Amino acid sequence: MRIAVTYENGEIFQHFGHTQQFKLYDVDDGNITSSIIVDTNGAGHGALAGFLSAVHADVLICGGIGGGAQMALAEIGIQLYAGNTGNADNAVMRYISGSLLQNSAATCDHHNHNHGENHSCGNNCSSH
Fold it and tell me: What is the spatial distance between Cα 4 and Cα 122, in angstroms, rounded to a whole number?
């Protein structure tokens, strides 16, 4: 199994569509067997689902994420754990132990913002 986490400086990056990096974790029998940080190379909202498919991610752990991205991930079979904050490694360990919670209010609303600054990403969106 491969788990992808939106990533910045050891923490879960809070805006899926703007993430510059993912940390990928390979998990076997409940243990992390390897991890690597990969750059998205500027891929934006629309391309990130394809990027995650190409790196064979099974699960995505992130902060805020828009409805379109959620649907794209569902269509390609990537399990979503949105609305998370804090240390990326700890979140993966919580996922493995079955204690990582999903937050259905972790959506980003991009219909009423001006150039990416004034929008709502649930309760967990940090400053962009």
Answer: 21
Give the span between the Cα atoms of 109 and 37, in whole angstroms: 28
Query: What is the total residue count of the chain?
Result: 128
Chain position carrying tokens 């828009």: 66
**In what order do the strands lie in the sheet containing 65-66?**
65-66, 107-109, 120-121
Q: Structure tokens of 8?
A: 């910045």
Amino acid making up residue 59: V
Write down the pTM of the prediction.
0.82
Q: How far does CA 72 lie from the centroid of its chain?
A: 13
Q: What is the pLDDT along the chain (128 residues), one digit of tens a residue?
A: 999 999 999 999 999 989 999 999 999 999 999 999 999 986 666 689 999 999 999 999 999 998 889 999 999 999 999 999 999 999 999 999 999 987 755 555 544 333 344 444 444 344 33
Quickly list H helices, 55-115: 67-75, 88-97
